[in-house]
Write a structure and sequence with these properties.
This protein is mostly helical and 76 residues long. The chain is built from two helices and no strands. Helix 1 (4-46) runs antiparallel to helix 2.
């Protein structure tokens, strides 16, 4: 027989796991945006527009991460 305490503990563990996954997604998104900004900076430097390339690629990556997060929430 399952007690209320056992159900509550599973619920707490499940919420904690969801929070860990959420934080990991945020960290990965930030890392991807920083890498894209660095790559864009160097590509843009070749075209004499370093900051423009960095901003462009980091924004594209940010939008892609946002869309990915929204789609994952729809599946859950």
């Amino acid at each position: 027989m399952v007690t209320k305490n056992a159900v509550f503990m599973r619920s707490v563990a499940f919420r904690k796991r969801l929070m860990e996954v959420y934080i990991m997604r945020v960290i990965i998104s930030i890392i991807l945006m920083v890498i894209a900004a660095l790559v864009g900076f160097f590509f843009g430097a070749g075209m004499n527009e370093a900051m423009g390339g960095a901003i462009l690629l980091s924004m594209i990556t940010g939008f892609a991460c946002t869309i990915n997060a929204i789609e994952k929430n729809k599946k859950d």
